[in-house]
Write the structure tokens for this entry.
Amino acid sequence: MSDCVFCSNIVSGKESHEFFRSDRIIGFMDKFPVEDGHCLIIPRKHYVNILDIERQVYLDIHNLARYVSRAVMDVFHADGVNIGQNNGECAKQVVMHYHLHVIPRHCGRELMWSRLDRSDQELEKYANMISTRLNDIINLDII
Ligand SMILES: [Zn+2]
């Protein structure tokens, strides 16, 4: 969809700090993170939300989230991780292309939900760090 920011910028590969891409799904750094390591997993095909996404694509995304959670916790020395997903405007879905948030959490540090200002260079560095760790985890099947 041409009016979708994820289709036009992320799926096209124009403007993303990716750490994973397959024939069906993409993992990349959130451009406006609430915590360092905050990333998103999306389908390459445009689905609005949980109400129209295909079952297998949904399962692929959530299965990858298991590995990504371990990777971001290792890379950012986090104590936990939040997995989040909004459906519908009243549920605070802003981009109308299915996306799953993976947010590393640190004990004793409250999340303010305000967006951090991170440069493209920093986001690219984080994507590379996650990609390296993710490949190890998937290859070694640590989870
Ligand atoms: Zn889209």
